[in-house]
Design brief:
Elements: H1 6-17, H2 34-53, H3 74-89, E1 98-101, E2 104-107, H4 108-130, H5 138-157, H6 173-180
Antiparallel strand pairs: 1-2
Helix pairs in contact: 1-3, 1-4, 2-3, 2-4, 4-5, 5-6
């Protein structure tokens, strides 16, 4: 997986996210409506940025559910956060060595893969929830799929992924990534 996949994935993610209008629409993530999913992204983005910079994470006053980050100006906040994530993880050195996401040390490449996965998977979630299309590069979707397979058991045990969803043998790289992370590629609101 390379840092070069991030910029185009981030651009597609932002194209989708800033066009969202109905914040109460359901998403493929059963625990989130659109507002909740955007709040999730805005809450965890600073943690990912800190991990990429090898800095201490922010000290939030509230947990994710209570944070209420989708307020006036959320689009600009998400754009700025996404640009910062691309800046931080857009260099190969950000993907080397060890970092920490909070107190949990982990390979920096795993955190970089998480960032790419956030753009691709949650971009698809938002596209489905809002009736938009999405067009991620097959290479980005393949990288997300490979990461999901490698981390699948651990991610499912932590409640990050749902049970894998079977997809057709000739499924696109994006559909394979969706299925590996517990998403039904045919999901509709």
């Amino acid at each position: 997986m390379t840092a070069s996949l991030l910029r185009p994935a981030a651009a597609e993610f932002l194209r989708i996210a800033v066009a969202v209008r109905d914040l109460t629409a359901p998403t493929p993530c059963a625990e989130y409506d659109v507002r909740g999913l955007l709040n999730h992204l805005l809450y965890w983005g600073p943690w990912l940025i800190a991990a990429g910079r090898r800095e201490d994470p922010p000290a939030p006053a509230d947990g994710e559910a209570e944070a209420g980050l989708v307020a006036e100006g959320w689009r600009a906040d998400l754009e700025k956060q996404t640009e910062t994530l691309v800046e931080v993880f857009g260099t190969p050195s950000a993907w080397t060595g060890v970092t920490a996401l909070g107190a949990a040390p982990m390979p920096a490449a795993v955190v970089g893969a998480m960032v790419l996965g956030e753009f691709v998977l949650h971009g698809w979630d938002l596209a489905r929830a809002s009736g938009q299309s999405c067009a991620y590069a097959p290479e980005a979707a393949t990288a997300v799929y490979e990461s999901a397979v490698a981390m699948g058991d651990q991610a499912r045990a932590m409640g990050v992924y749902g049970p894998a969803v079977a997809v057709a043998a000739g499924a696109s790289p994006l559909d394979r990534a969706l299925g590996a992370t517990g998403r039904d590629p045919a999901w509709m609101p």
